């Protein structure tokens, strides 16, 4: 567990990582959708990894880690779409690295406890190899469960990953500060804490879920009571940091360069049309030559 010394540390009443680091707002406010796959453990981890990489490079690195790479290739992270262990995600990040190409396929491993790791990129227009696209972490650690220590960690380095118990009534959450009221425990759920505040006198954590931006009324986010270890959310908080070389550059073998499919599709269409036009020109030239030769032969 990381040592926590908050002596003399002034913690504000409200904090929102999206506002604190505007250059990384796109990353921090991104809400993913795990679908029918119990892959919250992977989404929470790669979300924090992406946020912290951006924050600690002052917005220069907006790399999106692939949850599918983690799900498919971290064989010891546990059971793919039937759950995983947060700390092992971070261990994999620091020892083997995670890339950003693989698209998420939530249905592929829904009923499987084992996965197949394909060490290649499935996007032909993603011009970085699987090996060269790997980004690594330098360290990972448990954060002291004291609320002030969690707050200090977020203020200093960025969002953190947490685990909470999900009860039946959480499925009906829409807005406000969630406090468990009724229902059986269904499972544990990994989430990303990005800030805190107070609403109607109740202190809360501001949390990013991975059930899509249409979930609830806060565009995929929710608030949960802070300072009382609501649903165990303050018990197992984990975080880590990206690995840099001696020149303070992110450790990766080559630069990440992604061209969106919308763009590459247009480029591909232009290439096809140009190829067809060139082919027609060649055919017409060939026909013209044949006609000229025939004319000269007939004339003689």
UniProtKB/TrEMBL annotation:
MF terms (GO), sorted A to Z: cysteine-type peptidase activity
A biological process term (GO) from this entry: proteolysis
The keyword Nucleotide-binding is annotated on this UniProt entry: no
Keywords: Membrane, Transmembrane, Transmembrane helix
Domain of life: Eukaryota
Pfam families, alphabetized: Peptidase_C1
Keyword Membrane in annotation: yes
Domain Peptidase C1A papain C-terminal: 11-241
Transmembrane segments: 258-284
InterPro entries: Papain-like_cys_pep_sf, Pept_his_AS, Peptidase_C1A, Peptidase_C1A_C
Family statement: Belongs to the peptidase C1 family.
Name under which the protein is recorded: Peptidase C1A papain C-terminal domain-containing protein
Organism: Zophobas morio
